[in-house]
Write a structure and sequence with these properties.
It contains seven helices and no strands. It is an all-alpha fold.
Length: 262
């Protein structure tokens, strides 16, 4: 009975003093400090992943500013003036290369023409000696004149195509072409003289004048060839004169003054 009285008394006291405090549960415990949570440290790690590369990049920019400036300067687009100058230099180099090729080709061809046309000039010289303005020697045969015509036709074919180069090269080409054409004309006139007895003297006199024009033009062309060979770096190049007894432009050895390729 005593125990029941005690329990009853406790219930009554609780009713009189108010409701008893409920026992503390884990959910009602105060939250732990923020720096002790797992979410906090995950956030710190994420921030580090973002901020550290940014800091390294900033240091690289500050430390390597000069290099980056040089690279930016090197990649800067060229100005219109620079582009024009670069194109001028390219064209100059291409022109110089082309002119050297043309000079060599013309010089080689002129040597071949001298060999091909010398029999023609020597044959005419037997009829019309170059050291006399009045003397007339024996006439060549029709077969010999036919050979002269074949030689001159082949020589003239080389100059049918108009090839433009530097001024000096064009002058040499023009002079040599005039010489070859004059040789072709004198051969045609010589052939007429064989067939036309009544006008032979006048025709042969015409041949003499045509030969003189051919010789002067050839001499001009070979002198100019020598000059342009020196100009492009090949040194002195002496193409023979037409006919026996012709003299080169000078007595310097072939190739004197040549410039080696860089």
């Amino acid at each position: 009975m005593a125990k029941r009285s005690d329990r009853r008394a406790r219930r009554q006291g609780a009713a009189a003093g108010g409701a008893a405090s409920p026992p503390r549960t884990p959910e009602s415990a105060p939250p732990p400090a923020a720096y002790r949570t797992r979410q906090f440290w995950l956030g710190v790690l994420a921030a580090a992943c973002l901020l550290v590369p940014v800091a390294v990049a900033a240091a690289a920019i500050v430390g390597g500013g000069d290099d980056d400036g040089a690279a930016a300067s090197a990649k800067a687009p060229e100005s219109p003036e620079e582009a024009v100058q670069r194109e001028v230099e390219r064209l100059q180099k291409a022109t110089q290369t082309r002119d050297k090729d043309q000079v060599k080709d013309l010089t080689d061809r002129a040597r071949g023409l001298a060999a091909d046309l010398t029999p023609v000039v020597d044959g005419v010289a037997r009829t019309l000696p170059p050291d006399s303005e009045t003397k007339v020697g024996p006439l060549a045969s029709a077969a010999a004149v036919g050979d002269w015509m074949r030689r001159t036709r082949a020589a003239r074919r080389y100059f049918r195509d108009s090839v433009s180069g530097e001024t000096g090269t064009n002058v040499a080409r023009g002079a040599l072409a005039a010489a070859v054409n004059s040789v072709g004309e004198l051969v045609a006139t010589y052939r007429l003289a064989l067939d036309d007895r009544s006008n032979r003297a006048a025709l042969l006199e015409r041949v003499r004048g045509q030969r003189d024009v051919a010789m002067r033009a050839w001499d001009t062309g070979t002198v100019q060839l020598d000059a342009i060979n020196i100009a492009v770096g090949y040194g002195h190049q002496h193409v023979p004169a037409l006919g026996a007894g012709g003299l080169p432009p000078d007595d310097l050895p072939e190739g004197t003054g040549a410039v080696d390729e860089p």
